Amino acid sequence: MKSKLTLVAIAALLAAGCGSSAKHTAPAPAKPAAPAAPAVTPVDWPIYGLTPDHHRYLDADVRPPFHPRWTFNSNGLLEFPPAIAGNAVYQLNDNAVLNALDRDSGRQLWYRQIGQLSASTPAVGGGVVYATVLDRGNGDGRVVALSANDGHVIWQKDLPSATESSPLLANGTLYFGTQGGTVYALNAADGSVKWTFTAAGSVKGSPALSNGIVYFGDYGDQVHAVSARTGNSIWTAHGSDSLYATASVGFGRVYIGDTSGNVYAFDAKTGNQVWSEGTGSDVYAGAAVLDTPGVGPTVYLGSYDGNFYACNAATGGVRWKFNAGGRISGSEAIVGRLVYFADLGDHITYGLDVTNGNVVYKFPHGAFDPVTSDGIRLYLDGINSIVALDPDHPPTRTATVDGRP
After folding, report:
1. Considering the domain boundaries, does residue 7 fall inside one?
2. Does pTM surpass 0.85?
């Protein structure tokens, strides 16, 4: 038996680490936690043209390359892009079926047949979806308000003529035009008429709103500015042919194209023509306007001549143009530093650098108005299906909607 002293000595040696190769050092200080990534939240694209003045520009960190997240087959022609609000994407087909899709999965939340024929983008606000009908079954149109939650009809108003005007929702009022030449301002809550305005011809584009004035063109070759509150005329200007395109407002001017191939800039206050620029064929596309970094104020739009144009917003001079090879009918959208459009020839959607027109992105899917975004991804329309595209590099900041010029 070992003595008590020996046992104590051995215990002391073991406690000191003798007879072991292990080294005892003070623990390393903990590394500071990495700062949390900023929260990136989706934004709404609730109306045609994004904002009431239709500048069509979303300042977003959404850029290629992209990969498909989901695809929804609509079983109907898609001439107009969807609206986005909350967790849903609202797509109105040409067969007048309104689909509500889950934004993240593409799952159909609900659908509603609201007529026989439609050609417009719905408007969404306050938990309500508003949609126009080109033919409700007898050749005349209607406007419908539905619950965004489940699609039940809140109110509807039959019209004495067809409408393919994407409704503008602003300040509790719904504005749209008809093929009979009447522009309506309705109380969005119940559909009651606030005022009407009789134009010189069909009003097919979506009205634009800026500084209390509503702007639109008609098929009587006229461009109108009317009071958003009363509908009283402020000024009338003239193009040289029918005006299908939706007007866009920026830099104190109203930009709109006509079916003779001209693009016009009118002073937003007086209606005086500032400039016009000819393209080779009909202009059906609404313009996008942007104070382009390193370039300056620029107007972007496509023409049936197959070219996509970037024009100096002050003079109308062409900064650059891109030959897509096929007719460009639908309007474009600017997301980040790319302007997206599609052509009807090869059904390709292009993403061009806004500064020089270089091709940065191509996707073999597209026809009319191809793209909207929620600042997280792109939602791209083809002929009869919509594809959600996630960027390979997720955005690092929340998009800014109100980047108007």
Report:
1. no
2. yes
